[in-house]
Amino acid sequence: MAKKVKTVFVCQECGYESAKWQGQCICGAWNSMVEEKVVPAAESTDKRRRAGGVAAGTSDSKRNRPSKLTEVKSGDYTRMDTGIGELNRVLGGGMVKGSLTLISGEPGIGKSTIIIQAAANIAEKYGRVLYVSGEESEDQIKMRADRVCKTLPENLFLLAETNMEVVAAVADEMKPEFVIIDSIQTMYTEDLDSAPGSVSQVRACGNELMRVGKTYNIPIFIVAHVTKSGELAGPKIVEHLVDCVLHFTGERNQELRILRAFKNRFGTTSEIGAFEMAEEGLIEIENLSKSFLEGMDDGAEGSMATAVYEGTRPLLLEVQALAAPANVGFARRSAIGVELSRLNMILAVLERKAGISLVNQDIYVNVVGGLKPEGTSIDLAVAMAIYSTAKGKSGKGKTLAMGEIGLTGDLRSVQNSEKIIREAARMGFKRVILPQKNADRLKTSEIKGIELIGVKHITDAIKAF
């Protein structure tokens, strides 16, 4: 009997399905609905019987019953070492067996490079690794592997294939220790008539990969494309299916690459991994603070060092600001690495509470290195950099500033201040301007060679500058 073909309209942005075409989707996107044909899979008798429970003839003893949470045994997840320390850090200590990891980034950022390096390390240490490529030929992957891998293990297998049924059959037969899919947008299943990369195909292939990974306890890396806005392409349901979502950032004309986890069921999302793109592949950067502060001139006008705490390590940064007279119209505000709304708030506090007029000044702020630090601990450094360039004053020696600025102009404490200051002392800083509460807590700490200047208000910080 022929299967009934169902026609639906699917939003390419959010994956919403509708029986009829509509100009605007419920997510707000315009003209994002595309027509797709879906062939429903035939339900087996066993599936219907299981869904029906006792009414369909299933005995009461075979029904799945709820368990008390206190009686459920908690087991530790088995992790695999990828051989790349920064990747292990972002994953939470290594790859968890049976987990699905989605890695995304702009073309040429280094996604395929890091996964072929990880694949070679895992194949040499654990056993068979299956690399499935739907975009590149086996020759292209071999050329990259020769360039970035120190050795090519015998257990690393390549498969140039886009048919998900074939990939699943090979995985069922090989039982590999690790599987890589590059990329999910090139895969398709024969159960659907829609083109590869469509919402329904990506969703179906994601479900099939989850079945393979969970059934055979295989960790799977899935490479995904990104849209022009930098977001993951395809339906959001794929992000919900996977256990971990990684994203590569960085400028292709620069060497620094930052790997961050947006979702991680087995670890924190506050860790970042730092790499340097070189001819021999991605090289880990152990002293990230040094790379961000490299080239920073002591006491330079419009420049101020600051620090944030990323995951389990302190990270020192340089904030630069430039003030220029506004020629026509309203003054311009531009920020890279700092939220524009946060910058406008800091400028308002400087004008209202510190008496610094910036209404006729164009203000440009940049966090050197391309990193976008989370949190508000860099507020004081941004304010000090703007004050320095607006007044034409330079700071005193090697000074670091950190603290959150409130609307009243007061400074609020930051977390992990002791570890940050110890890192600042190791990097050669002599003075740290920080909130008074943090300074009071650190009086008993034995941190030698660095002066702690506790301030309560933005005006006190300006005087200490």
Describe this structure in words.
This protein has 465 residues and is α/β, with parallel strands linked by helices. The chain has three domains: 1-43; 79-285, P-loop containing nucleotide triphosphate hydrolases (Rossmann fold, 3-Layer(aba) Sandwich), CATH 3.40.50; 290-464, Ribosomal Protein S5, domain 2, CATH 3.30.230. It contains 13 helices and 23 strands. It has helices at 45-52, 85-91, 111-125, 138-148, 164-174, 199-216, 237-241, 288-293, 340-353, 379-391, 417-426, 436-441, 458-464; strands at 6-11, 17-18, 33-38, 79-80, 95-96, 100-104, 129-133, 156-160, 178-182, 220-224, 244-249, 256-264, 272-278, 281-284, 303-310, 313-325, 333-336, 361-367, 399-401, 404-405, 411-412, 431-435, 451-455. Strands 8-7-9-10-6-11-12-13-14 form a nine-stranded mixed sheet. A four-stranded mixed sheet has the order 15-16-18-17. The chain has a three-stranded antiparallel sheet with strand order 2-1-3, with no helix packed on it. The radius of gyration is 27 Å and the shape is globular. It starts with 5 loop residues before the first strand and ends with a helix. Residues 43-59 have low confidence and may be disordered.
